[in-house]
Amino acid sequence: MLFRLLVPLGLLCALLPLHHGAPGPDGTAPDPAHYRERVKAMFYHAYDSYLENAFPYDELRPLTCDGHDTWGSFSLTLIDALDTLLILGNVSEFQRVVEVLQDNVDFDIDVNASVFETNIRVVGGLLSAHLLSKKAGVEVEAGWPCSGPLLRMAEEAARKLLP
């Protein structure tokens, strides 16, 4: 949960001076490349910390630097990060994570999962990554956008929410 809150807050703080035309760090006009790199650095700090200290759990607890399952034991943070990896242009890491998720995430488990969180973070995260994958140059299956591994995972998760 903290990852989900800190990343957007960090992005907002990093981009706010650019949006308002405020001077950059050295007093000159804002430099979009500078802010873009700050945002990427913040994302990778959070992402790498999650992978190092919390995967395969849902989230990283920043004070104890360990992971815990909060909403169903689906590696939520990793699913949340999928579309961001593509937006940042990291196609190779995106492809690696898709394989990791396919090998490690099982929606056929008996857990008390939040319907809301699972819907927006798991189903939504998988759907957005599925739809972005072709634009990112990822090789897609025949029949895309009506087929693909991420779409099948999203459908499986959504079907589990129906009862």
From TrEMBL:
Classification via PANTHER family: ER DEGRADATION-ENHANCING ALPHA-MANNOSIDASE-LIKE PROTEIN 2
Domain of life (superkingdom): Eukaryota
Entry keyword annotation includes Hydrolase: yes
Species per Swiss-Prot/TrEMBL record: Cervus elaphus hippelaphus
Enzyme class: hydrolase
Subcellular location: Endoplasmic reticulum
Signal peptide: 1-21
Pfam families reported for this sequence: Glyco_hydro_47
The keyword Aminoacyl-tRNA synthetase appears for this protein: no
Coiled coil (residue ranges): none
InterPro entries: 6hp_glycosidase-like_sf (IPR012341), EDEM1/2/3 (IPR044674), Glyco_hydro_47 (IPR001382), Seven-hairpin_glycosidases (IPR036026)
E.C. numbers: 3.2.1.-
Biological processes annotated in GO: carbohydrate metabolic process; endoplasmic reticulum mannose trimming; response to unfolded protein
An MF annotation (GO) of this entry: mannosyl-oligosaccharide 1,2-alpha-mannosidase activity
Protein name: alpha-1,2-Mannosidase
Keywords: Endoplasmic reticulum, Glycoprotein, Glycosidase, Hydrolase, Signal, Unfolded protein response
GO terms under cellular component: endoplasmic reticulum quality control compartment; membrane
Main location: endoplasmic reticulum
Family label: Belongs to the glycosyl hydrolase 47 family.
